[in-house]
Every structure is written in C-alpha cells, then in structure tokens.
Amino acid sequence: MIDRRLLKNFDWGLLAVVLALSLLGIMIIYSATRPILGAEHQPFYLKQFYWIGVSLVCFFIAVTVNYMWFIRFAYLFFIFSFFLLIAVLLIGKEGMGSQRWISLGFLTFQPSELFKVFFIMSLSCYLSNREQEISLGLRDLLKIFLVFFIIPVVLILRQPDLGTVMMLLFICASIVLTAGVKRKVIVVAVIIGLISLPFVGNIVWGGLKEYQKQRIIAFINPYVDSQGYGYHINQSKVTIGSGGFWGKGYLKGTQGPLRFLPERHTDFIFSVFAEEWGFAGNMILFFIYLFIILRGFDTAKRARDPPGKFLALGLTYMFFFYFFINVGMTLGIVPVVGVPLPFMSYGGTALLTNFFALGLLINVRMRRFSLFY
Q: pLDDT at position 372, please?
C-alpha cells in the first residue's frame, strides 16, 4: 500500500510540466517529419508516443522505490553500465559513423545514455559516505576522476560519443565543486590541467573521427565550408532566424519538412520549434526548462540527507547541461556533438533515461519528510 503522505508530497506540477513538454515534442516531431508533396510520412511521432508509455513505467518504478535503495546499490548499477559500455565496443550496432547502440532484436538502446544516471548515483554514494565537514582533497579527486570518470570516458570516446563525454565532464565538475574542494587542490588541479592540456588535447583529437573533427572546425569557423561540414550549423541558424518574433505557425515551417535541416527531429528539433513558434515561443520554452531546473535545485536544498542532496543536484545538472548543450548547438555557440533536447527530441533511450531521472528527482522531494514519519 502506498503511503498517503508520499502522495501528498508528490510533485504533480513537475510531472504535468514534463508530460506537456513530451507531448509538445511529439507535435514538433510530427511537424518536422511530415510528408511533403505526397511523400511517405515516417512514423517517428508514433514511436515516440510508445516510448513515452515505456518511460512512464520506468518513471513510476523510480518514484515508488525509496531512492536510498538506488544509492545503496549504486556501485552495482555503475559496474553493470560499465560492462554495457564494453559490450558496445564488442557487439554494438553501427550507425552514422558511430558504434553506440546494442540491439536485442526487438529493442535497440544506447548504454551511454543510461550510464549518465548510474554515474550520478554512484558519485552521490561516494560523496555522501565521506565526512561532510571536510572538503575534498587531492586523493578524493584522483579517485573520482580515475574510477568514476576517466576509465568510462575512454570507452565512450571509442564509440565515439563526444556529447556524452562533455556531459559527464560538466556534471562531474559541477557536483565536485558543489561538494567542496580545498583551495590548494583547486590551484594544483588548474596548474596540472593547463600543463597537460596540449598533451591531452592531442590524444583526444587523435581519437576523434574525421566527421567529429570537422564539426569542431565548423564550430570555430562555420563559414569555412558552408555546404560541407558547416552545413548543420548554418542551416540551423537560418531555420531559427526565419521564425522571427511570432513564428510561421504550427505545421507551416519549411526548413525541416523540406529536408534542408539535418537531424531535424533529434539533435535540431529546437530549430524546427523556433521556426514555427518564433522568439515568443522560445521564451516560453526557456521558462519551462527553467522551472524544471529550479525545481531540481529546490529539491536538492530540501533533501533530508546527503545522498538525496547529491543525487538531486547531479540530476538537475544533467537536465541543465542537456538543455544548454543542445540549444547551444543549434545557435552555434557549442560544437555539434549529438546531445538531444530533454523530453522533446526523438529517441527512446534518452527519453527513458530522462523520465527515470525525473522519477528519482521527485522521489527525493516527496521523501524529504520521511525522518518525521
């Protein structure tokens, strides 16, 4: 039997906002992939609708089970996802120049998406087990970056998945800085980072595939090859700018349906939305995501224990960097690295991961009074 006090503290408003955002995503996916001149309409929007149903099941599992259970077994989840990353390199399915997916026949999923949540869970477990009054020292940082970050990143770069690497780097740095780091350690880390940057940069650059190098070059100078590897960014800017202030109206956009904009229903879905809904619609969308992010930080602030605090912080940072990197890609202020817009972009694994993360976030919030029950 579900405790009524938990239902009373359930964040119905946050769930309602996310469901509305997901349904809006289906509308934009339909518009972006709608048939032109009698062409066949690919049913991406129907698949996304089915994935919302599956994601809601994962959401309710994440909400129902006490989040401390997930923290208790966080390291096991981390090891499991680590082996999945190894499996991707051995038996993974290739697509679009990358090997990021595992196919089970009836289902294809991307382990690096799931790894983000398990990474946050395990890091939250580690940070909550230390003495809270003591800032992180050099030994702690070495453990975190070697065990939780560096080793998995090497596997993810082999896929390659530069977007996930960026996400993990930003999330890890944000959580660690929030937990507290000794000043001397920060100074030493910055000095070491600056000295090693050229060497690490050469290693990372050498490990990238040609199309990823071209995307970074296009980010630095999008006009170096406007019809080649700068095409994505330039077409995205054209699509967003053509929407003006009020937008062209729903189902009246042209850049996506006419196939001028690549990856219009996944990485560049924000561009399609901006063309149809304009600057005014973008502002509303920004405030929706701002509500989700601020709600997450408020949940972390109200958490009843350190594990809940770090878990809520990590998940909130994840949503923030998802949003920032995706929108930044479409505007040309971040390299194109294949990060979806949370709850809107087409993609089953990403949607499932985001709903599972949302469930954990609401789980922390509704159990903040558990000590007093």
A: 43
The number of domains in the chain is 2
Separation of alpha carbons 219 and 212, rounded Å: 11
Q: What is the dihedral of CA 73, 74, 77, 83, to 10 degrees?
A: -120
Pair (97, 202) in one structural domain: yes
Give how far the C-alpha of residue 325 lies from the chain's centroid of Cα atoms, to the nearest Å.
9
Q: Angle at which helices 269-302 and 231-242 pack, to 10 degrees? A: 90
Q: What is the dihedral of CA 155, 321, 348, 295, to 10 degrees?
A: 130
pLDDT, tens digit, 9 for 90 and up, residues 194-209: 787 776 666 666 666 6
Ramachandran area for residue 330 (φ above 0: left; ψ -120 to 50: alpha; else beta): alpha
Look at residue 229 in the predicted model and tell me its pLDDT.
Answer: 61
Residues spanned by the domain of 318: 1-63+224-368
Domain-ending residue, one of 158, 180, 208: 208
| Residues in contact with 34: Cβ distance below 8 Å, sequence separation at least 6, in sequence order | 41, 251, 257
